[in-house]
Amino acid sequence: MRCRQLAWTLDVIRQRSAEFLKVPLQTIVTPVIAAVLFLAVFALAGATRGLMVAVIVVAAMAPIASVGLTHAFAALFFAVAASLMLSLVGLATGILADTFDHIATVTNFIITPLAFLSGTFYSVRDLPDIWITISQFDPFFYAIDGFRYGMLGISDSNIWVGTAVLIAVNVALWMFGHQLFVRGYKLKS
């Protein structure tokens, strides 16, 4: 969970601070295809930072606690997909926000409630039926559930549905952020 939050936070801060230094304009006018620039320089950089934190946390916890890995590919896929998802959300938030209060609004009213509804600290099966249904529309639920499946072999939903949802959400967020970036929305003076 921390790697995902850090991927989002660092991309938002990077985007907002870069605007004050006029960095976005310099990156927009470079002779690199916008899709490659947006994906490689911004989105994957945020996801990589989040994943680096996850590796450090696992390395620090390994001597203290048993770190199981039931399905390595699933754990890796869901960690990367979730970090990329929040990196893309952070980029879009950083571009769209006018002030740091707008960024805090996204954190407090979108990211945090979705994270708590995702089953991070409990099994979604323990919730009343209405909340189980609502959680099925939460992409964070599929990220957490898939990662839990990779680490423990336990899942509250179909792992392939979670894979499809995260791929679809990442593609949609990438397309949205790419369009903001290509058009220079709030990036060009």
Largest sheet: none
Mean pLDDT: 83
How many strands in all?
0
Distance between the termini: 36 Å
Q: Could you state the order of secondary-structure elements as H and E?
A: HHHHHHHH
Overall tally of structural domains: 1
Class of secondary structure makeup: mainly alpha
Topology record:
Elements: H1 2-20, H2 23-28, H3 34-61, H4 72-96, H5 100-117, H6 129-135, H7 139-152, H8 159-183
Your description of this structure?
The protein has one domain. With 189 residues, it is mostly helical. The protein is built from eight helices and no strands. Helices cover 75% and strands 0% of the residues.
What attributes does this structure have?
mainly alpha, single chain, globular, 189 residues, 8 helices, 75% helix
Short description:
75% of the residues lie in helices and 0% in strands. It has eight helices and no strands.
